[in-house]
Design a protein that fits this description.
With 167 residues, this protein is mainly α. 59% of the residues lie in helices and 6% in strands. The radius of gyration is 18 Å and the shape is globular. Pfam families: EF-hand_3.
Length: 167
């Protein structure tokens, strides 16, 4: 938790310099509190770095495709020239990501993760998949992660400006 706290402090300090007045001075504290609530419910003082990174990627303001690629890079296993995501790595990713909606009471059962993993690997003979198959599956908006593109679309609409007047 201390290491993540230091990293968040540095990250938000840089963001405050880049966007003065747009970053709350307590952003690092709030983010750490959120991460701890999601990944350290028993208060052990330990949060898996990969889990925290996945949450930060999911909650970032980046476009969906960039988030999906970052998830792949974070959870993939390198194998020579290519990297692959295994079933267990996908299960870990989905479990980590599902802690985000769980924090607001929208939890998914373990069976949801298993069903999603099975759907991603449907028709795959190997024990792992390449990035393109992973991205294609995510673009199909699997039910277990439907909240992610929905939140992205909601945040994207906040930036839309119409030059119309209402009466």
């Amino acid at each position: 938790v201390r290491q993540i706290s230091g990293m968040l402090t540095k990250m938000f300090e840089r963001a405050r310099l880049e966007k003065p007045g747009q970053v709350d001075p307590r952003a690092a504290e709030f983010t750490l509190s959120l991460l701890a609530a999601m990944y350290d419910r028993s208060g052990t003082g330990y949060i898996k770095t990969k889990s925290a990174a996945a949450a930060l990627i999911a909650l970032s303001g980046d476009i969906l495709l960039a988030k999906y690629r970052a998830f792949f890079q974070l959870y993939a296993v390198p194998d020579g020239k290519e990297a692959f995501i295994t079933r267990s790595a996908l299960r870990s990713l989905l479990t980590d990501l599902n802690q985000i909606p769980a924090i607001v009471g929208e939890s998914c059962t373990l069976s949801c993760v298993e069903i999603a993993t099975h759907s991603c690997f449907h028709g795959v003979l190997n024990s792992a998949i390449v990035e393109e198959k992973f991205l294609s599956w995510l673009r199909s908006e699997p039910a277990v992660l439907l909240w992610l593109p929905t939140c992205y679309r909601l945040s994207a609409t906040e930036m839309v400006s119409h030059q119309a007047r209402c009466r």
